[in-house]
């Protein structure tokens, strides 16, 4: 096992969730390659190879548009996330592309202080290690939940 690679992947995951949890959403698309894919789906859809998910973007530009919509157009109750990411595992590396996976939990904190376990699941990632910084070439967010109880406003 390449311990340096493991540390770099863990650092990428930590910086990613801190960006979201600290409401620095304008920085979030920068974690993806220019043509990076981001998809949120349910475990049931993933297991059945169903292409329809909860959210899909096929470029950094689409993610930037999503953030702009969140900030300027969408109306949703103010909330924050707190991620807990565990069991980060590098599953492969080939030609500048790293495959990794991890489990996550997201606690949602509402403006009035109420908290709930919003989502649990796993990340399945392809990470490009070409260039100076690692970027997600593909981030597949697989939710254990069959549905989200409200508007999925903030990225997971």
Structural description of this entry:
The protein is of the alpha+beta class and 156 residues long. It has a single domain (3-143), classed as Roll (Nuclear Transport Factor 2, Chain: A). It is 24% helix and 43% strand. The protein contains three helices and six strands, in the order αβαβαββββ. Strands 2-1-6-5-4-3 form a six-stranded mixed β-sheet. The longest helix is centred in the first third of the chain and has 19 residues, at 3-21. It is globular and about 45 Å long. The mean pLDDT is 91.
Defining key terms:
156 residues, alpha+beta, Nuclear Transport Factor 2, Chain: A, 6-stranded mixed beta sheet, 24% helix, globular
Query: What percentage of the residues does DSSP assign to strands (E)?
Result: 35-45%
Intertermini distance? 28 Å
| Name of the CATH first level | Alpha Beta
Could you tell me the CATH topology label. Nuclear Transport Factor 2, Chain: A
Q: Provide the spatial order of strands within the biggest beta sheet.
A: 2-1-6-5-4-3
Helical amount among residues, as a percent range? 10-25%
């Amino acid at each position: 096992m390449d311990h340096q690679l493991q540390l770099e992947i863990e650092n990428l995951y930590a910086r990613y969730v801190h960006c979201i949890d600290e409401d620095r959403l304008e920085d979030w698309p920068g974690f993806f390659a220019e043509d990076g894919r981001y998809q949120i789906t349910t475990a049931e859809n993933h297991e059945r190879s169903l292409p329809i998910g909860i959210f899909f973007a096929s470029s950094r530009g689409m993610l930037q548009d999503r953030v702009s919509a969140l900030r300027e157009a969408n109306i949703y109750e103010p909330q924050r996330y707190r991620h807990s990411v565990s069991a980060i595992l590098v599953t492969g590396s080939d030609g500048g592309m790293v495959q990794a996976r991890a489990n996550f939990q997201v606690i949602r904190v509402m403006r009035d202080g109420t908290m709930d376990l919003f989502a649990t699941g796993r990340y399945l990632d392809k990470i490009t290690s070409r260039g100076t910084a690692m970027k997600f070439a593909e981030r597949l967010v697989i939710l254990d939940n069959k549905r989200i109880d409200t508007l999925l406003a903030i990225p997971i």
